[in-house]
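Bumping my old thread because nobody answered last time. Still need a sequence for this structure:
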């Protein structure tokens, strides 16, 4: 058995004892040397009784990562932010933020997960134990996201079911749910569009799918829409049977859910390019407004790339932990992040060719059509255009099927991050009970989503979307980067990467990890806290107490980090003076770390119990 070079030799210490009763410095009675990893030197051991799953094929992993990173936000958020921030000029800050911020953190998380082969909670025992609260915060954020994100997929499923008709139900104003304000301008002349006008697609979304008219806002969200309840139950059923056996099942499902959206996007792109007025939308999408580069475009670009690539959600850690030890995660990071960014760019053409067509039909400017952002762009604007195309039923079916698959991929990744983190933290209890644990987790997510299925559920979705994984996830990524680069040490991390790949990360990556990426994240977090516009949805202004509730939701996840730090400092034996006085071995590592890893010791004196020095 090859000796692990990352562990120091034994160093005697005559006075300290560990929690197993062994004197610090005595040879461990269980093992004569540090434990080994089945993948390579310097890695973390895997209990032989519970061998870790591995991806069946390399493509299973790549498609899972692409499926997580490419989600509904790529279809609506990037095009909207792009044209709001100068069109083609936005691509400059977007590319720079991707190169210096998003991709380096994407690479870091893949490398961390692959080297340590464990989830977001227990991984901190090997990196910097005092920051273990980051893992718990990630899991709570993952739950908040599952509470509202799957409801959006349920809306898409409702649309998908409604599309199987000769005439799409949002194509006319002759339905029971329509109001006198319903205005259908397609195929008609001399139609006046006013501020009170509502398209058939908007009234179908708000009055038929959501039934917002039966809600009094957040004060009275009303009862549960049983149709949406059935849709959500079906979504979670699909999610359960995709995740219950681990990567062996989810790795096969993504071959459909991750590839189908690209086929649909290409079909919709070709169809959109042939519509009258499509060129107006493309010009509006790409026309550069250089003056925007002096505004807040840099903050929007940085936020978009971080939310799009998804570092900090624990998903990349979890997915990479099932890789073979010597897998080239560096190449994987470059490929998958490039695919994600190019998909966002392609989606812009798909959306704006249709928006140009709608502007042509309404005889208005493209910016007047494209004022909607968020899910409204997917459930109102685009369906309205589809309803007036030749072959509308076919295009509606494939469009909402694409939305469902895009959403499912991200749900697979988000929940797998929580599953892997908790199961790796408590392997003795959960290792042989994955099916039951996944069932329990899915049940919790389903019950937590019930408030989003009410008549006022859209208001709850907006609140959770804004605060559940907004500023809190950016702050978590910031602390994660600091913990790895500054506390664990960039040199130690670089040695870990070299043990896996055979080469050390270049100077560019090290500078990004240590300085540039943390600075960008701190800038975004500060900007997000300072600039918080009032929440509104369909003319409804959120009350002040709802904003306070949102801040509590965001803080409830982040608070895990300082709480665990205080707990760790109080629980760990020894005073801070003893911490500073603890001897170090010639290799620069505290010998207590080696004894803990070799003997399985869990109660140790600082600093090793706090920071892997």
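Sorry it took so long. Here it is:
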């Amino acid at each position: 058995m090859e000796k692990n070079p990352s562990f120091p030799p034994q160093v005697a210490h005559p006075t300290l004892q560990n929690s197993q009763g062994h004197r610090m410095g005595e040879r461990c009675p269980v093992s004569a040397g540090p434990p080994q990893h089945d993948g390579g030197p310097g890695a973390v051991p895997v209990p032989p009784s519970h061998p870790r799953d591995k991806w069946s094929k390399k493509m299973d992993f790549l498609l899972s990562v692409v499926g997580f990173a490419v989600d509904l936000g790529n279809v609506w958020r990037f095009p909207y932010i792009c044209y709001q921030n100068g069109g083609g000029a936005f691509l400059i800050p977007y590319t720079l933020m991707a190169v210096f911020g998003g991709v380096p953190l994407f690479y870091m998380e893949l490398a961390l997960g692959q080297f340590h082969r464990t989830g977001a909670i227990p991984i901190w025992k090997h990196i910097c134990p005092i920051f273990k609260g980051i893992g718990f915060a990630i899991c709570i954020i993952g739950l908040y996201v599952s509470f509202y994100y799957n409801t959006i997929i349920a809306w898409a499923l409702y649309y998908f079911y409604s599309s199987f008709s000769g005439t799409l139900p949002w194509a006319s104003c002759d339905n029971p749910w329509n109001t006198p304000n319903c205005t259908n301008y397609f195929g008609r002349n001399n139609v006046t569009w006013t501020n009170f006008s509502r398209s058939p697609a908007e009234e179908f979304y708000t009055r038929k799918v959501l039934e917002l008219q039966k809600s009094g806002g957040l004060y009275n969200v009303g009862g549960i829409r049983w149709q949406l309840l059935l849709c959500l139950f079906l979504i979670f059923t699909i999610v359960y049977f995709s995740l219950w056996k681990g990567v062996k099942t989810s790795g096969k499902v993504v071959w459909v859910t991750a590839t189908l959206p690209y086929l649909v996007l290409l079909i919709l792109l070709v169809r959109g390019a042939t519509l009258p007025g499509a060129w107006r939308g493309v010009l509006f999408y790409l026309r550069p407004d250089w003056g925007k580069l002096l505004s807040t475009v840099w903050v929007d670009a940085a936020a978009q790339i971080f939310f799009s690539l998804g570092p900090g959600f624990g998903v990349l850690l979890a997915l990479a932990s099932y890789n073979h030890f010597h897998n080239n995660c560096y190449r994987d990071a470059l490929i998958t992040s490039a695919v994600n960014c190019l998909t966002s760019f392609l989606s812009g053409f798909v959306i704006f060719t249709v928006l140009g067509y709608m502007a042509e039909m309404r005889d208005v400017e493209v910016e007047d059509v494209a004022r909607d952002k968020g899910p409204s762009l997917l459930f109102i604007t685009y369906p309205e255009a589809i309803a007036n195309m030749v072959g509308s039923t076919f295009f509606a079916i494939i469009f909402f099927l694409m939305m469902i698959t895009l959403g499912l991929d991200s749900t697979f990744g988000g929940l797998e991050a929580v599953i892997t983190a908790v199961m790796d933290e408590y392997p003795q209890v959960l290792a042989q009970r994955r099916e039951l644990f996944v069932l329990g987790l899915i049940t919790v997510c389903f019950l937590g989503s019930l408030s989003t299925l009410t008549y006022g559920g859209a208001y709850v979705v907006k609140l959770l979307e804004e605060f559940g994984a907004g500023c809190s996830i950016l702050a978590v990524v910031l602390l994660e980067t600091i913990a790895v680069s500054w506390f664990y040490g960039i040199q130690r991390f670089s040695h870990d990467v070299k043990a896996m790949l055979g080469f050390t990360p270049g100077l560019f990556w090290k500078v990004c990890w240590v300085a540039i990426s943390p600075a960008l994240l701190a800038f975004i977090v500060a900007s997000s806290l300072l600039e918080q516009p009032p929440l509104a949805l369909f003319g409804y202004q959120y009350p002040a107490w709802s904003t306070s509730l949102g801040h509590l939701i965001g803080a409830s996840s982040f608070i895990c980090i300082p709480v665990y730090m205080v707990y760790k400092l109080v629980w760990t034996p020894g005073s801070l003076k003893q911490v500073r006085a603890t001897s170090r071995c010639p290799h620069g590592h505290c010998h207590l770390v080696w004894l803990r890893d070799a003997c399985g010791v869990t109660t140790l004196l600082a600093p090793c119990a706090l920071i892997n020095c």
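Confidence is low (pLDDT under 50) at residues 1-49, 579-611. Let me know if any region looks off to you.
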